[in-house]
Amino acid sequence: MANVKINELPAATSCSSTDVFALQQGATTKQVSQAVVLTNATLTTCNLGTPTAGNIAACTNYPATSLTGLGAGIATFLTTPSSANLATAVTDETGSGSLVFATGPTLTTPDIGVATATSVNGVTITGAPTGAVLTIADTKTATINNTLTLAGTDGTTMTFPSTSASIARTDAAQSFTGNQTFVNIIRSGLFATSAAAPTIASATTIAPVTPIVFVSGVTAIATITAPAPISAGGGQITIIPTGLWTTTTAGNIALGTTAVVGKTLIMTYDATTTKWYPSY
Question: Is this structure's pTM higher than 0.70?
Fold first, then answer.
């Protein structure tokens, strides 16, 4: 068979999948068809041009950066699917940082806006039907050590002491220490002291420390040391004489008197004059 130039071949017509072609290399002649050439063929570095149809579902190793028609950052995210690349790929995100999923995420200083929650850090939150407000001033801490219920009138303010202290109650006995100032006191019922009255011996200076005190002996009393809080604001001490002592005006007693055994002597102290005024 003589060699024939390609440009001298007759014009070719379209072939069908059943057409057979003769191929010869040296002494070897083969017959091939369209199906043999194109079915399951492996093409290396070929340029497909612009295909009009096909299925590339089974293709591999196609670089995502070669895809066209994608939004900004999509190809980069498909290649390296990091939180930062996802944030670059989307256009309506808020905040920054790592991608968050529903269960157990760690959020750093989030602004959750108007949120609904059943518990926060183990604290159960009961939603108010129409809303409620809890306000804690900046840098302040509220510590609650026991279960309690706070009740009162809306809009009122309770001012607590400037130092650590216990809050008194109105329905049971209370013990107060320090100077207490009560205005417009209305007392109902019996008035009791905290302990039995002690006995002290009369002397030039005596220093009672209880509201009621027995005084024995016969030595004249010139000075009575005013105990706190009487020394600061004035007050009274009830003295029950058990001896025939007297008082003089040489110290801080305004009037000399003679004690009557068994007869109560009320001593009233005035903080302005720093004097005691006896009842008889």
Answer: no
